[in-house]
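chain below, 442 aa
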Amino acid sequence: MSNASRERRKAQGARVRGWLRGQGQPPGPFRPEFWRSPLRGPWLTSVFGLVLLVGLPIVALTGLVSYAAYNPGLPGNDMTPEKGLLGFYLFDWPTSPVWLYRLTQGTHVILGLTLVPILLAKLWSVIPKLFAWPPSRSPAQLLERASLLLLVGGAVFEFVTGILNIQLFYVFPFSFYPAHLYGAWIFMAALVVHVALKLPRLVTALRSRGFRREMRTNLRDTRPEPPDPDGLVAATPAPPSMSRRGLLAFVGGGSLTMFGLSVGQTLDGPLRSTALLAPHGRDYGPGPNDFQVNKTAASVGVTDAQTGPDWRLTLLGAQQVLLTRQELLALPLHTYRLPIACVEGWSTEQEWTGVRLADLARLCGVAEPGGVHARSLQQGGVFNRVSLSAGQVADHRSLLALRVNGADLSLDHGFPARIMVPNAPGVHNTKWVRELDFRTLP
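prediction:
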């Protein structure tokens, strides 16, 4: 190596050490002049922040409610048994109103998708802050930067894993349920800290410019915001190529598009055809069984031979009872119109006919069951069995469904029999039921 090369390396090392000590700034995005958009500034960031301040807590709270709906305190239901104090809020999930889970989970998914363009716009508006150098000049600034990194990282993690989950695209090397729960708590903690630090500035920034005035400002009259202490306003702004009005319309239009392409999967009915982002498609064939299928029989190893004439339902209680499907059909049947809603955000309301779970409990000698443990023919998977609470079993609308909309269940919808409990998550309405255990839950 020549002397010149050694000198260049020595000088380069000295510059890097100087940057790490806060002497100067690295090139590229770490320098304020790199960011030149004339639209960035406290007011625009605060507009996006205000929308997220309303929407994100709703998404987070409905997500926590979704976890409670799984009744994780019952055997086999908890996908996050190491949650510890993070489960302090859990409660017995009710069966009424029957539309509650449909509402909360639909809101969680649809609102989350709707907020994606706004979240991306917010990240774009504050991206100079992520590259501010040095990272910290004081303990207060260090706390602010740490909360910002946790907030951004938590938001990106929650949205990315959530969207991949509703699209059934499991490319991450970890279980979705615990990761999403822990990520949600980290994100919410960072959000609380960030709001506590930034709320006064948000209010001041929103008051600094009139929203109506900005909506009337065209491209020609668009000017940068005044310099700010956070460094959001460009030091050397470029000429504007879009007005703030245009940017807000673009972001708002993106959110409305996301809403319009996904809300049909929750509302169902005629709007199902508009749900282009629905993970399970929009058409499931003609007839009474034309509604969403989460997992097909073939995908979980359930065959026609297992569900044919030799199928038997086993009831376990004070005594063991075996029933054929014909014997089940000979019992008193009841029909209720109930919604079924899935964690991915889709839901539908159908007319279900079957035998009450409480009647089946009495048939095997259990007058007041403390719950039931249902087992499926499904091969493997975390939801091939489920525990239902005493309240769920006692509800007169809780059925072992045999028919839907007046027709026999199709194989993909759970033939020969499936659980149908009002207001339960879709995965707890177990399909291809082979055993109901009304004894003390294991």
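Residues 13-266 form one domain. The longest strand covers residues 347-356.
thats it, cya
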